[in-house]
Model the fold of this input.
Amino acid sequence: MAEQKKEHNHLHGHTHGHPHTHPHGHVHSEEEKRAVVNRLSKAIGHLDAVKRMVQNDADCSDVLIQLAAVRSAINNTGKVVLKNHINHCIVEAVEEHDMEAIEKLNQAIDKFMK
Done:
């Protein structure tokens, strides 16, 4: 991927460009990352609990209900990631006419929605 030069102002008043090398030109806030990591941690804990249910011969209907809850938690986490991506990365990609980023989003949505 080609490096992009991005103009920005420093606190001490001068402007210059430098290459940005992260994949899509945007770093998510710590709050956004923490929210997604927390959701994933909860889903992992829930899935571990379902695993224990199976190991302890829990009722199959109860296992299926809990698996549906885990799947829902993962899908909701995906929605949060998608919204963050659209609100930040894709807005920036549109401003910069970065069609590659938009195409990557389309491919990711296709895979996520299977």
Summary: The longest helix spans residues 60-95. The helical segments are 30-55, 60-95, 99-112. Strands lie at 4-9, 15-20. The first strand starts at residue 4 and ends at 9.
